[in-house]
Amino acid sequence: MCTECLEKFSAAFAAPENAQQQVIGWSDEDLTDAEMLARLPLIATTATQVDRYLRLWVGRIRERHISYAEIGKALGVSRQAAWERFSRVVTQGAGTKSGAAAAPRA
What we know:
Elements: H1 3-14, H2 33-63, H3 68-75, H4 79-91
Helix pairs in contact: 3-4
Organism: Nocardioides anomalus
Protein name: AsnC family protein
């Protein structure tokens, strides 16, 4: 999905008048217990992929020397929460080109 389409979909789905809408195919009312359990691995895999991408993205942002305070603000969390969640990304070299750790900035 292109960025423009994703933005349009997100805006439409987030609109107050669509608060009760459900994604087609994901209504738990129509699924058996076995079908709900069968979806767990897909949901878990998706969450893992999103978390991995988020950590890589934060690593790239830190390469630009953007502070954890700014990252936290963008995510709606404190600087400390952002640092605790993502500082290992930079330390482990996942977000740095050279693999060296960048000094944390407040």
